[in-house]
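Workshop exercise sheet. Pairs work together: one partner reads the sequence aloud, the other fills in the structure field after running the prediction. Swap roles for the next sheet.
Pair: D.N. / O.F.
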Amino acid sequence: MPARGTHKKVQTKRITSLEVLIYDDDARFRQLLSDMMGQSREITFSIQEAEDTEQMELSLKNHTPDVIVLDLELRGKSGLEWLRDIKKHEIAPVVIITGSGDERQAVEAMKSGAYDYIPKAYLTFDQLTKSLINAHEKWNLLKERQVLLDKLAHMAMYDGLTDVLSRRALLEQMEFETQRTKRYNRNLAILMIDIDRFKKVNDTYGHIVGDVVLKRIAQTLKEQTRRSDFVGRYGGEEFLVILPETSLGKAVFLAEKLREQVANLAIKANGTILKGTSISIGAAAFDNDASVDEFINRSDKWLYKAKEAGRNQVQPKVGTKN
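Structure field:
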């Protein structure tokens, strides 16, 4: 047990095996690389070889190695072309080991995505194994970093509970859509949606059930709208749907469909089955002179009218002036 006030050092996962694909049209050099890797006592190298374009394409088609060792001086498709293709498709890290020691070529290779560049004349066992391990570790770190960045980007764009767009993302999309609508004089509509008597659901069944209701309704809204539409959680139990290229009449028609779909849901949560959940919806069409806030406020106004008129309905009714 560590002494009080000390910290255990975090151990990184030790690499014990690597799958390496060697592409070099010189059979003797491929053998030399294989022999070098075979000397390692700490890492087991599983080696594949390619001597021409056809074998290289077949190897990459059937298998993804941990590291690729690539010569630049190849017949047919050049090593730099292979390097750029491998980077473009994010196949594996590439270590260049080539007969040329040209500095400009080395710079070009590193710019094109190589993880290391070693002239054959200066190749040693230690340098080879170190380069392969470093390339693999750096590749994995970059992949993990990208996964984290993608996760953070998703968290910034989407509501954590319902996995529809967040309020911030909705407002950014609204700004874009209103500007596009003004520029091209197209139709644009929105739906402001509120779950009726949602507080009663939370008070009666608890917030766990309330969260399930929110998620199920959000899922229904996504399922019943087009891929070109934008569904988001505006706040609390309110959702906003942005409908590009949509007139007020079509928006009201869709809103009625959404209302009916939600009304027919049987929501299972925490041993409870909720039926008869309803939503009220306010629809609005964009006026070219309006701001985003004015546009949203107009849909809010119709939502409140739907609430005042008894809930579980859409306002305005078809034919009503927006």
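Discussion prompt: Residues 167-315 form a domain with the Alpha-Beta Plaits fold (CATH 3.30.70.270). What would you look at next?
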